[in-house]
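Table S2 (text version). Query chain:
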Amino acid sequence: MAADRTHLGLFLRSRRDSLTPADVGMRAFPGPRRVPGLRKEELAVLAGVSSDYYSRMEQGRQANVSRSVLDALAKALRLTEVERQHLHILASPSPRRRSPIAVEQHADPGLLRMMTVIDHVPALILARRGEVLATNALLAAVLGDVRPGSSLMRYLFFEPLARERIVNWEHFAASSISALRGELGRHPDDHRLITLIDELRSRDVDAARWWEDHSVQDYASAAKQILHPDVGTLSFDIETMTSTRNADQVLIVYTAQPDSDTTRKLPFLASWSMANTTTT
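Corresponding C-alpha coordinate output:
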Protein backbone atom coordinates (compact mmCIF):
# COMPACT_ATOMS: atom_id res chain seq x y z
CA MET A 1 0.00 0.00 0.00
CA ALA A 2 1.41 3.38 -0.99
CA ALA A 3 1.60 6.20 1.47
CA ASP A 4 -1.24 8.74 1.32
CA ARG A 5 0.15 11.93 -0.24
CA THR A 6 -2.95 14.08 0.29
CA HIS A 7 -1.70 15.67 3.49
CA LEU A 8 1.73 16.31 1.97
CA GLY A 9 0.20 18.38 -0.83
CA LEU A 10 -2.08 20.30 1.53
CA PHE A 11 0.81 21.10 3.86
CA LEU A 12 3.06 22.31 1.04
CA ARG A 13 0.28 24.46 -0.41
CA SER A 14 -0.49 26.03 2.98
CA ARG A 15 3.16 26.93 3.62
CA ARG A 16 3.56 28.23 0.06
CA ASP A 17 0.48 30.44 0.46
CA SER A 18 1.92 31.93 3.66
CA LEU A 19 4.96 33.45 1.90
CA THR A 20 5.28 36.16 -0.72
CA PRO A 21 8.22 36.64 -3.08
CA ALA A 22 9.28 39.64 -0.99
CA ASP A 23 9.34 37.44 2.13
CA VAL A 24 11.99 35.22 0.57
CA GLY A 25 13.95 37.98 -1.15
CA MET A 26 13.05 37.23 -4.74
CA ARG A 27 11.47 39.25 -7.53
CA ALA A 28 7.94 38.13 -8.33
CA PHE A 29 7.47 36.37 -11.65
CA PRO A 30 5.62 38.55 -14.20
CA GLY A 31 1.95 38.11 -14.97
CA PRO A 32 -1.29 38.23 -12.97
CA ARG A 33 -1.19 36.42 -9.62
CA ARG A 34 -3.99 34.00 -8.76
CA VAL A 35 -2.51 32.82 -5.45
CA PRO A 36 -1.96 34.77 -2.19
CA GLY A 37 1.63 33.61 -1.76
CA LEU A 38 4.39 32.05 -3.80
CA ARG A 39 3.59 30.48 -7.13
CA LYS A 40 4.57 26.87 -7.67
CA GLU A 41 7.13 28.00 -10.22
CA GLU A 42 8.67 30.47 -7.79
CA LEU A 43 9.00 27.89 -5.04
CA ALA A 44 10.48 25.39 -7.48
CA VAL A 45 13.19 27.89 -8.43
CA LEU A 46 13.96 28.60 -4.78
CA ALA A 47 14.23 24.88 -4.00
CA GLY A 48 16.24 24.04 -7.13
CA VAL A 49 13.75 21.61 -8.66
CA SER A 50 11.71 21.71 -11.85
CA SER A 51 8.21 23.17 -11.80
CA ASP A 52 6.79 19.87 -13.05
CA TYR A 53 8.52 17.92 -10.28
CA TYR A 54 7.17 20.24 -7.60
CA SER A 55 3.68 20.21 -9.11
CA ARG A 56 3.66 16.40 -8.94
CA MET A 57 4.63 16.61 -5.27
CA GLU A 58 1.86 19.04 -4.40
CA GLN A 59 -0.67 16.99 -6.36
CA GLY A 60 0.38 13.79 -4.61
CA ARG A 61 1.70 12.17 -7.80
CA GLN A 62 5.42 12.05 -6.94
CA ALA A 63 6.09 8.61 -5.45
CA ASN A 64 9.54 9.18 -4.01
CA VAL A 65 11.18 12.38 -2.84
CA SER A 66 14.78 12.52 -1.68
CA ARG A 67 15.79 13.95 1.68
CA SER A 68 17.87 16.60 -0.06
CA VAL A 69 14.85 17.86 -2.02
CA LEU A 70 12.72 17.90 1.13
CA ASP A 71 15.40 19.85 2.99
CA ALA A 72 15.68 22.29 0.09
CA LEU A 73 11.91 22.84 0.18
CA ALA A 74 12.01 23.27 3.95
CA LYS A 75 14.70 25.93 3.59
CA ALA A 76 12.85 27.71 0.77
CA LEU A 77 9.61 27.71 2.77
CA ARG A 78 11.36 28.93 5.93
CA LEU A 79 10.03 25.96 7.88
CA THR A 80 10.76 25.51 11.56
CA GLU A 81 12.54 22.35 12.68
CA VAL A 82 9.21 20.84 13.77
CA GLU A 83 7.68 21.67 10.37
CA ARG A 84 10.71 20.23 8.56
CA GLN A 85 10.35 16.95 10.43
CA HIS A 86 6.62 16.95 9.67
CA LEU A 87 7.39 17.40 5.96
CA HIS A 88 9.72 14.39 6.01
CA ILE A 89 7.09 12.27 7.78
CA LEU A 90 4.38 13.17 5.27
CA ALA A 91 6.72 12.40 2.36
CA SER A 92 7.75 9.01 3.74
CA PRO A 93 7.87 6.58 0.79
CA SER A 94 6.54 3.62 2.76
CA PRO A 95 3.32 3.23 4.71
CA ARG A 96 3.77 3.99 8.38
CA ARG A 97 3.24 1.27 10.92
CA ARG A 98 -0.21 1.18 12.43
CA SER A 99 -0.45 2.78 15.84
CA PRO A 100 -1.11 0.53 18.87
CA ILE A 101 -4.25 2.52 19.70
CA ALA A 102 -5.94 -0.22 21.72
CA VAL A 103 -3.25 -0.25 24.42
CA GLU A 104 -4.13 1.72 27.55
CA GLN A 105 -1.61 4.45 28.26
CA HIS A 106 0.19 4.57 31.61
CA ALA A 107 2.43 7.32 32.91
CA ASP A 108 6.14 6.70 32.44
CA PRO A 109 7.75 5.92 35.84
CA GLY A 110 10.67 8.23 35.19
CA LEU A 111 8.40 11.16 34.39
CA LEU A 112 6.34 10.39 37.48
CA ARG A 113 9.44 10.50 39.68
CA MET A 114 10.46 13.79 38.12
CA MET A 115 7.00 15.23 38.74
CA THR A 116 7.19 14.39 42.46
CA VAL A 117 10.52 16.19 42.74
CA ILE A 118 9.05 19.43 41.39
CA ASP A 119 5.84 19.47 43.43
CA HIS A 120 6.39 23.18 44.22
CA VAL A 121 5.19 24.11 40.70
CA PRO A 122 2.21 22.89 38.63
CA ALA A 123 2.98 19.88 36.42
CA LEU A 124 1.24 17.17 34.43
CA ILE A 125 2.12 14.21 32.22
CA LEU A 126 0.49 14.33 28.82
CA ALA A 127 0.20 11.42 26.39
CA ARG A 128 -1.02 10.86 22.87
CA ARG A 129 -4.15 12.79 21.86
CA GLY A 130 -3.62 15.19 24.75
CA GLU A 131 -4.74 12.60 27.29
CA VAL A 132 -3.81 13.49 30.87
CA LEU A 133 -1.98 10.63 32.60
CA ALA A 134 -0.97 12.35 35.85
CA THR A 135 -1.14 15.72 37.58
CA ASN A 136 0.08 17.20 40.81
CA ALA A 137 -2.01 19.14 43.32
CA LEU A 138 -0.83 22.55 42.15
CA LEU A 139 -1.84 21.85 38.56
CA ALA A 140 -5.42 21.22 39.66
CA ALA A 141 -5.34 24.30 41.86
CA VAL A 142 -4.22 26.47 38.95
CA LEU A 143 -6.32 25.09 36.07
CA GLY A 144 -9.30 23.55 37.81
CA ASP A 145 -10.89 20.35 36.50
CA VAL A 146 -7.87 18.76 34.80
CA ARG A 147 -7.36 15.28 36.20
CA PRO A 148 -5.86 11.94 35.15
CA GLY A 149 -8.03 10.24 32.57
CA SER A 150 -9.33 13.51 31.18
CA SER A 151 -8.53 15.16 27.85
CA LEU A 152 -6.55 18.41 27.88
CA MET A 153 -7.94 19.19 24.41
CA ARG A 154 -11.55 18.79 25.50
CA TYR A 155 -10.80 20.89 28.58
CA LEU A 156 -9.32 23.69 26.46
CA PHE A 157 -12.20 23.83 23.97
CA PHE A 158 -15.28 22.58 25.81
CA GLU A 159 -14.75 23.61 29.44
CA PRO A 160 -15.80 27.27 29.95
CA LEU A 161 -13.40 27.53 32.90
CA ALA A 162 -10.44 27.19 30.52
CA ARG A 163 -11.34 30.37 28.64
CA GLU A 164 -12.01 32.16 31.91
CA ARG A 165 -8.71 31.27 33.58
CA ILE A 166 -6.27 31.21 30.65
CA VAL A 167 -5.82 34.85 29.72
CA ASN A 168 -3.96 34.03 26.48
CA TRP A 169 -6.34 31.17 25.70
CA GLU A 170 -6.44 31.81 21.94
CA HIS A 171 -2.68 31.50 21.50
CA PHE A 172 -2.44 28.44 23.71
CA ALA A 173 -5.44 26.67 22.12
CA ALA A 174 -4.21 27.37 18.58
CA SER A 175 -0.81 25.91 19.48
CA SER A 176 -2.54 22.79 20.81
CA ILE A 177 -4.37 22.29 17.50
CA SER A 178 -1.04 22.61 15.69
CA ALA A 179 0.41 19.96 18.00
CA LEU A 180 -2.48 17.62 17.15
CA ARG A 181 -1.73 18.03 13.44
CA GLY A 182 1.88 17.03 14.02
CA GLU A 183 0.69 14.04 16.02
CA LEU A 184 -1.64 12.96 13.21
CA GLY A 185 1.33 13.02 10.83
CA ARG A 186 3.16 10.58 13.10
CA HIS A 187 0.09 8.39 13.77
CA PRO A 188 -2.20 8.56 10.71
CA ASP A 189 -3.96 5.30 11.65
CA ASP A 190 -4.90 6.36 15.18
CA HIS A 191 -8.68 6.38 14.84
CA ARG A 192 -9.23 7.75 18.34
CA LEU A 193 -7.03 10.70 17.41
CA ILE A 194 -8.99 11.23 14.19
CA THR A 195 -12.27 11.08 16.13
CA LEU A 196 -10.99 13.68 18.60
CA ILE A 197 -9.92 16.04 15.81
CA ASP A 198 -13.29 15.65 14.07
CA GLU A 199 -15.06 16.39 17.36
CA LEU A 200 -13.03 19.53 17.99
CA ARG A 201 -13.58 20.80 14.44
CA SER A 202 -17.33 20.12 14.47
CA ARG A 203 -18.01 21.64 17.90
CA ASP A 204 -15.68 24.66 17.95
CA VAL A 205 -15.33 27.21 15.15
CA ASP A 206 -11.90 28.30 16.36
CA ALA A 207 -10.58 24.73 16.28
CA ALA A 208 -11.98 24.27 12.76
CA ARG A 209 -10.36 27.50 11.57
CA TRP A 210 -6.96 26.73 13.07
CA TRP A 211 -7.00 23.19 11.66
CA GLU A 212 -7.42 24.54 8.13
CA ASP A 213 -4.29 26.65 8.60
CA HIS A 214 -2.15 23.44 8.53
CA SER A 215 0.21 24.89 11.12
CA VAL A 216 2.41 22.32 12.89
CA GLN A 217 4.00 22.64 16.32
CA ASP A 218 4.96 20.39 19.19
CA TYR A 219 4.26 20.85 22.88
CA ALA A 220 7.11 23.31 23.10
CA SER A 221 7.85 25.99 25.63
CA ALA A 222 5.16 28.65 25.74
CA ALA A 223 4.02 31.35 28.10
CA LYS A 224 0.71 31.08 29.89
CA GLN A 225 -1.13 33.70 31.92
CA ILE A 226 -3.73 32.51 34.42
CA LEU A 227 -6.39 34.66 36.07
CA HIS A 228 -7.05 32.75 39.30
CA PRO A 229 -10.17 33.62 41.33
CA ASP A 230 -8.29 33.51 44.66
CA VAL A 231 -4.80 34.84 44.00
CA GLY A 232 -5.22 36.91 40.83
CA THR A 233 -2.82 36.83 37.89
CA LEU A 234 -0.25 34.05 37.57
CA SER A 235 2.41 34.08 34.85
CA PHE A 236 4.15 30.87 33.79
CA ASP A 237 6.63 29.68 31.24
CA ILE A 238 5.84 26.17 30.02
CA GLU A 239 8.75 23.73 29.80
CA THR A 240 8.55 20.15 28.57
CA MET A 241 10.49 16.92 28.99
CA THR A 242 9.88 13.90 26.76
CA SER A 243 10.17 10.34 28.02
CA THR A 244 13.21 8.45 26.70
CA ARG A 245 11.12 5.26 26.74
CA ASN A 246 7.93 6.63 25.21
CA ALA A 247 8.18 9.49 22.74
CA ASP A 248 4.42 10.06 22.99
CA GLN A 249 4.61 11.07 26.66
CA VAL A 250 5.73 14.46 27.87
CA LEU A 251 6.11 16.06 31.29
CA ILE A 252 4.80 19.63 31.18
CA VAL A 253 6.03 21.95 33.91
CA TYR A 254 4.69 25.42 34.71
CA THR A 255 7.76 27.39 35.75
CA ALA A 256 7.87 30.86 37.27
CA GLN A 257 10.64 33.40 37.53
CA PRO A 258 12.45 33.45 40.91
CA ASP A 259 11.22 36.17 43.27
CA SER A 260 8.28 36.85 40.98
CA ASP A 261 4.76 37.58 42.17
CA THR A 262 3.67 34.17 40.87
CA THR A 263 6.40 32.37 42.84
CA ARG A 264 5.23 34.08 46.01
CA LYS A 265 1.61 33.09 45.38
CA LEU A 266 2.22 29.38 44.71
CA PRO A 267 2.81 28.38 48.38
CA PHE A 268 -0.58 29.87 49.23
CA LEU A 269 -2.24 27.77 46.54
CA ALA A 270 -0.35 24.70 47.74
CA SER A 271 -1.43 25.21 51.35
CA TRP A 272 -5.12 24.66 50.65
CA SER A 273 -4.61 21.97 48.03
CA MET A 274 -2.37 19.68 50.12
CA ALA A 275 -5.32 17.37 50.74
CA ASN A 276 -5.16 16.45 47.06
CA THR A 277 -2.08 14.27 46.72
CA THR A 278 -0.33 13.66 43.38
CA THR A 279 -2.73 11.56 41.31
CA THR A 280 -1.71 8.92 38.81
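Notes on Table S2: Residues 275-280 have pLDDT under 50 and may be disordered. The chain has two domains: 6-90, 109-273.
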